[in-house]
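Hey, I'm writing a tutorial for new members on how sequence and structure tokens pair up, and I'd like a real worked example in the thread rather than a made-up one. If someone can provide the structure for the chain below, I'll link this post from the tutorial.
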Amino acid sequence: MSATRGHPHSPEAQTIMSAIKPIRPDIIARFEGQRAPRYTSYPTAPHFTHTFSDADYQTLLTGLDPDSSLSLYLHVPFCQTMCWYCGCHTRIVASYSPIEAYLHALEAEIRMMAAALPQRMNVRHIHWGGGTPTIMAPDAFRHLMSILRDCFELRSDAEVAVEIDPRRISEEMIAALGESGVTRASLGVQTFDPVVQKAINRIQSFEQTARATEGLRATGIDAINFDLIYGLPYQTAASCEDTVARALDLKPDQFSVFGYAHVPWMKKHQRMIDWQSLPNPNQRLAQFASIADRLVDAKYRRIGLDHFARPDDPLVRCLDAGTLRRNFQGYTSDQCSTLLGLGASAVGSLPQAYVQSTTQVGEYRRRIEAGSFAIQRGRRLTAEDRLRRDVIERIMCDFRVDLEAVAGKHHVDVDYFAEELVRLWALEHDGIVRVDGTVVSLEQAYWPLARTVASVFDAYLQPEEQRHAAAI
């Protein structure tokens, strides 16, 4: 899909975002308390229920198309302190020994995975996540990157991305990242408001963020992403706008702007946050609007729900071409059909299935050291799963989907979605979506409800499910 005046993401459309009517109060009231998946996969992680033996996973790997390209995700589940808002799989360590032992297991898994593939395969994307990946020693990072190059054919134009805590990264680690071919760095900023920082147990000065950003650029890592969060305790629209204003001084290429998901029944450390200090849905929407308006004014393009990028960024090129994708890291330009996860809790997406390793670090190490993979659960994909995944991905990426086009791609009649079109009538009556024949599009004011619209096409979601993030 090309960028035209009618495209919801076109530059012309984004320049009038501030003129869009706000979400009606009755709509906010209706959806307050409702929850919806983030749809970084479909089926979503709570519905990964199938067990996979070591032999099953070996078969999946061996059966990959040897001429296709891969993406790799490596998870390092360690931090020095716990941020109370955190929703990641991580653990706090006081010494380096558990990290060192884990990295030995990670190296063994890399070699095992490469040996199971049909041949030495091409890699286009590598993403280091956590936890805090840069908690490892600089030499350890250099070593693991060399192992990846030994085991895979890393393309000369491959993107190598790493998540960074600016409070902890040393000059030596920054040098190691540059020497190892890292091309993109994602810095956790969240907020510069000291009141909010204290409430989430993450004290981080602007100077620490600036020092890390400048150091990365000096070593040749020019693509910089900042992660911001709204909906945190004691946060306001004004403090969000102030954080963005200061962040813009550092000129990052991308912003990821996430809404805080308060799920203390899943993440016990979130109980340290006083739920009464959290903003209500109206306040959350105002906070996001203050961030989005400031970034659009600064000539960043909005990407889907929560990403913003400079006009020359690869994400924008994919957006304008209609090829934007969504995976476990959010919006991406990655076009690979296979993403292999390495490390405890890592999720892989293969043409036939999703697979996830055990979240328990000790179990992960024991199984890898015993010479087997550590896959704990997953989901084998049916033809219907692939069909619905494509519909949901287009809604999440474009706020628009042509059901007839997607159905035709999967060789089914568009009447397959007759029930969903009936369910959309209520949303259309409220002005949330527009249905033109078989084309469903969200009105711009209701982009924040994209997950709710996408859920209409989710065959597994149960109305009583409360394990997902708030819909608003």
